[in-house]
Design goal:
By secondary structure, this protein is an alpha/beta fold. Among the domains are: about 70 residues, Periplasmic binding protein-like II (D-Maltodextrin-Binding Protein, domain 2); about 70 residues, 3-Layer(aba) Sandwich (D-Maltodextrin-Binding Protein, domain 2), CATH 3.40.190. The chain contains 6 helices and 5 strands; from the N terminus they run αβαβαβααβαβ. The strands form 2 sheets. A 3-stranded parallel beta sheet has the order 2-1-3. β4, α6 and β5 form a beta-alpha-beta unit. The two termini are about 30 Å apart.
Length: about 210
């Protein structure tokens, strides 16, 4: 499941032969040995200062929220490693986790832990690596004049209990939700947060009509 780019380093071993047939031969042999040692030392210094690079291909998919970060990191990596290729795709956290679990990609980018999107067995075969903290918020059209909503009101809106803005201090206008698709980790996190704030929210099936983004 876990794939790594292998880097093979080859080292050339230089051997010097010295003959001991007389005084002059010994001097010549010593001179040749010193020259070989110096050459090896210079080669070692040159090799140690040259940056190591890797080659190979890595494919990723998943969270669209993480995609800009992944693409930027991939570009920087490929600049330093011109023989490498990193293909970064979106599709949502659920898609990324599913594809890495199936071996279709090398890395699944997700806003949530694997156990929140996959069954227990599949999740156990993956290793979560935290790379950043993602912040999110709910927004309303500023023309509505609704400047503050409590956690309870937010839950009521997204579970369908509140269907008109006038129920939360806005104009007499039906609420139209714009949310993320079911494969989205952002949606899963939002739902988890609301369920934590309002325990009963987790018992409600979120069936409000909405547009996905």
């Amino acid at each position: 499941m876990k794939k790594a780019i292998a880097m093979i380093l080859t080292a050339a071993v230089c051997a010097s032969l010295a003959a001991c047939a007389g005084t002059s031969d010994k001097k010549t042999s010593t001179s040749q040995t010193d020259a070989t040692t110096t050459a090896k030392t210079e080669t070692t210094k040159e090799s140690s200062t040259k940056p190591e690079t890797v080659s190979g291909t890595v494919t990723t998919s998943g969270s669209s929220a993480l995609l800009p970060l992944v693409q930027a990191a991939a570009e920087k990596f490929m600049e330093k490693n011109p023989d490498s290729s990193i293909v970064a795709n979106g599709g949502g956290s659920g898609t990324g986790l599913k594809q890495v679990s199936e071996g279709a990609v090398d890395i699944g980018n997700s806003d949530v832990f694997a156990k929140e999107k996959l069954d227990e067995k599949a999740a156990k075969d993956l290793v979560d690596h935290k790379v950043c903290t993602v912040t999110m918020t709910a927004v309303v059209n500023k023309s509505l004049g609704v400047k503050d909503l409590t956690s309870q009101q937010m839950t009521d809106v997204f579970t369908g209990k509140v269907k008109n803005w006038n129920e939360v201090g806005g104009p007499d206008m039906e609420i139209m939700l714009v949310t993320r698709p079911t494969s989205s980790g952002t949606r899963a996190l939002f739902k988890t947060y609301m369920s934590t704030c309002i325990p009963k929210a987790k018992e409600v099936i979120w069936l409000r009509p909405s547009f996905n983004i």
